[in-house]
Amino acid sequence: MSELPQRLANAVSDPMAFAVPVAPRTLALTDDAQGRVAVTRDASGVTTLPLVAAPVGDRVVHETPAGFERRFRTSVVQGASPAASSAWAEPRALVDAWSAGAELLDPATLAVLAPGRAPAGSEALSSAAWVTPLRTATLPPATHTNAVVIHGDDGERWLVDPGADDALELSRVATVARGVSAILLTHHHRDHTTGAARLADRLGVPILAHPWTAARLSDVPVARTLGEGDAGPAGWSLLHTPGHAPGHLCAWHAARRVLVAGDMIASVGTIVIDPPDGAMGPYLSSLARLAGLQPRVVVPAHGAPIVGGAERLRATIAHRLWREARILEALSHEPTSLAQLVTRAYSDVAPSVHWLAERQALAHLRKLVDDARAAEHEGRWSVRTDATAHPAAAD
Questions:
Q1: CATH number for the domain harbouring residue 28
Q2: What would the pLDDT profile of 358-371 be if each residue is shown by its tens digit?
């Protein structure tokens, strides 16, 4: 994502028009004589209580915080017989395995088996990262940016990307972030950085960012700059992943295979690659690198955590290359304006957002020029006549 342009901010009078409604679901808490509970594991490896159709006396209610693409109001009830696909598990052993990073627990299941382990208003699919969506001036359909608390193996914690401007939102994340030792900014966009200075002062902690990010934040006091390979809390390392922004950082926990991805990928909306800061070639290279890590969980800045995120990363690459192919097809030997190219290559996109598509198309075109497959002259674009002879044409 990127920060919300003023012209779009003026046009959106009710950001909640983009919110996704809460869907009800009911989970059964079924136990046996040994105090074990029935659990199921879905195809992505997440452990949860079995779904049931009819509630029989609420035990606890868990609501997904606003800002996630899929939101549930989950009633957990004392159910009847477990489903045939269920297995029996000792609750304490299950939570201990989650704490050690060996299990991924559905947040509603965690709320029942270990009340209070994750603060209210946060989701904790993995014990390595707690996600608190904050209302920010970001691009629709997203309405929130995830502030993420990453947990080190030694108990140290960092807060990543507190981008809210609202005092109540900042108070909410300050409660979740109590005890953190630093604030990390993945990049310089305002929907990731706006609350950082106030929270750093409130929590008494330094702000950390890549040097290129620090140089773009004149109003945010970055205390220390970090880059590729630098250490975060124990078990975490930083990855320099340029493309969306030149100083973009991700946080990676190799042992638990949890990736805090910032704006490299989103589970709601799309990632804007907006030149000159955005560059499509480095972005695709960074995505390929992240997919190669085979992350178990990807925590994006916008939307819910993604289980088995490597597949989503590869799908994002495929989509971008598909769009690039459409842009290349739209080029001719006659110089063509950017607006004309967008009309041809983005015919599947509503004309009302073609101004935004132009920024994406420009990033693709600059990559095509770098690959010697397109040429640019005075703001107009054409196909390179010798493109088929260039090695990049086969990429």
A1: 3.90.79.10
A2: 999 999 999 999 99
